[in-house]
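Bug #77: duplicate submission created two jobs. Keeping one. Sequence:
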Amino acid sequence: MLKKRFFKTKDDCEVTFELDTDGIDHADLVCEVNGWQPIRMKKAKKGPFRTKLRFPKDESFEFRYLVDGSRWINDNQADEYRANGLGEANGVLDTAVRA
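Kept job's structure:
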């Protein structure tokens, strides 16, 4: 799940990434904004894996979740999907402010 928060006085968007914990021991967010380096997601006591990042407004970024170090998952609330050249697709986060 993606939750976007836009700021009136800043040119960025805070995004909370959440991933259900069913059958998952650990999860990483992997995205192009930081050169595809995995970002460990924290597991809530009674909830999903979660992490927050800030992204520049009015751009788009590809991302995926790496689960248990070997399985790739897309977010079903991604704004769109793009082929990644490996026979699969990456989720896309769009940070354009919508009226």
